[in-house]
Amino acid sequence: MRNPNLFMVSAVLACCAGLASAGYTPDFDRGVDVGLAIQAAIESAASAGGLVPEVPGLAPERPVWVSMEKSDVGALDGALFKSAPIAQNKRLAVYEFKPADLGQLSDGMYRSFRRAPGYFAHDTLEAALQDLEAPPAVPARAYTIDQGPRLKGMLPLVKEETIVSAISSLSAYRNRYYRSATGVDSSKWLQQAWGKFAEGRPDISVAAFKHAAFPQESVILTMRGTAEPGKVIVIGGHLDSISGGGDNPAPGADDNASGVAVTNEVIRTLVESGYRPSKTIKFIAFAAEEVGLRGSGEVAAAFKKEGVAVEGMLNLDMTNYKGSALDIYFVADNTNADQNAFLGKLVDTYTAYTWSSIKCGYGCSDHASWTKNGYPASLPFESTFEQYDPFIHKPTDTLSQSGGNAAHAAKFARLAVAYAVELAK
Ligand code: BES
Ligand code: ZN
Prior knowledge:
Layout: H1 4-17, H2 19-22, H3 34-49, E1 64-69, H4 70-75, E2 87-88, E3 92-97, H5 102-113, E4 119-122, H6 125-130, H7 148-154, H8 160-171, H9 181-195, E5 204-209, E6 218-223, E7 228-238, H10 253-272, E8 279-286, H11 294-305, E9 309-315, E10 328-331, H12 337-350, E11 355-358, H13 367-372, E12 377-378, E13 380-381, H14 407-423
Parallel strand pairs: 7-8, 7-9, 9-12, 10-11
Antiparallel strand pairs: 1-3, 1-4, 2-3, 5-6, 6-8, 10-13
The structure holds ligand BES and zinc ion.
């Protein structure tokens, strides 16, 4: 039998390499919390090697090609990079990585700077090399606000109760990891749930967007525009969750069942009110965000390739943890300044919420994929960057950390309803 003392020693040692992921700093003078140390060891081991099994019979992970800021590379442990960059420009470099090593990349950066590196992971070298090209310029557009009479009837329809219910359903899966069986199931569940909105609405359809390299599917609900169906508004957020990787428990209630639940509430509200948009609205739940924005990266690149005219993208990622004094914080980097200003005006026009701007400091979520492909994208966020939900990426990211209610998330649903109606007119 394995010597339990030896296991304890290795757990305590391993804890110190995985501190950032477990958020536990042992104090060797005053004593070590062994429970937390073991949790840290499990998380760190899993993120380092993907030790916990995923879908049985799933083919081993293929390498990915990662693009990231060269300044971040310089600040990280050189041992993480097994060889020289395959290609680079002034700002970015492209490396080949084993997906299982990406967790260490994030951990290394958290340890040094208390932030993730922010990187884009791709199935092919060709897709990664695209990142080295300058993104297409975003054409300037006029934003107007004149849908008051319509929105006056719609905004009161937003309900906390249905947001709570969607967060509960999604966070009940053991995890929604992009390669796990429950990660696949949670996407299928959402496809079914969204399918119900299409009943009796021939203008609404639901489709899975399949990804070649992993089994979790992105989900797209399309509400076809009545007058200009070729012009498209995108609203959504990532459906996957992570806690160390593999099949570890990862309820992801705030990160990001809360964003998917808000997306669901926007659809529900628009359908309940019998609203028909002039332009097409696509609601998207992205697979595989937590492993390098892979789901949204493929969806946004496909839209660009097909020449889809996306007039605006609203990313909903982390909406239900009120960590700061104000209600909504717009992320100013890797987003579109004009659309951010428009969103601020929507808040002032239609709500009494307070808002401000923050920076992630890196491409921290799916909006970055849309920005990169030349589309105007924004991320309204739950708190300042210093005060975001401390439970994300842990087995303790549950609805109870937000008091079991969706009061904060409902603000984002009201803003997103106003955004949909004012842009899709
Ligand atoms: N929801 C987070 C992004 C986030 C966290 C934004 C905290 C602002 C504050 C997202 O799901 C995430 O974890 N993103 C990764 C980056 C990605 C490129 C792998 C991260 O921040 O580590
Ligand atoms: Zn996350």
